[in-house]
Predict the structure.
Amino acid sequence: MSTSPDLRSRAEALGQTLPPLLAEAEMLAATVMLGEHGRRRAGLGDEFWQYRPAHQGDSARMIDWRRSARSDAHFVREREWQAAQSVTIWVDPSRSMAFTGDRSRPAKADRARLLGLALAVLLLRGGERVGLAGLAAPRAGRTQLLRLAARLAAGDGTQDYGAPETEGMASHGRAVFLSDFLGDLSGIEAGLARAADRGVKGVLLQVLDPAEEEFPFDGRTIFESMGGSLRHETRQAGELRSRYLSRLAERKDRLATLGRAVGWHFSTHHTGQPAQSALLWAYAALQGGR
């Protein structure tokens, strides 16, 4: 059977990209020490987790009378939740994510893909089901990891700025949005609202290049979006620094506020920083910590 030149070239490109991305993600994930049971919380299961004071509404059969006999209060014996959770990851494919202010640093898209895939490695090893929003339904197992890696390495989108994709999110599951979040806030708000309607909680991780934080520009400068749809030329870029930094701070505050309103965590990661710190934060945030 013959293969078209276009299909063959795309397959060869994927073959060159996939192994390094997957190997790097697994190496990054290996730096995070997992607990024996992954994300632990109360629920259905066989293994003891903790005792807690009885609350109004707990039935008498829930009381552990042997433990309660040792004190003046009643206690409930909680078991560890053992049902797998579905976690959906969205990695912004827009052109703005291709930016890097220095060739010694990875592009935002490369760092976001790495973090997304490394997080998937950790979650899948913990027995969770993981998927990519709009691209791959949540599943468990090694085969799913290979599928996610292939999807992430498949290429970039055509839009200048991205809005979170929520297709395929499981009700009452978890989600991770990885983006620079520099586009229209209405798209971000809509994505969070759709997730909240399904009872989904999760993480907003903003990935920025240090140049986008420091604004190291002065004199005559041409600012142009990665897709070319936006362009601004100035002869005194330095005079824009304070206004730019103020707007960026306002956007971060707004993202944090939007996240808190629906029970999500927000943080910013710079591509000049080690990826481990962002991975640790995201993994801990999915467990309910900060």
Observations:
- The first strand starts at residue 48 and ends at 53.
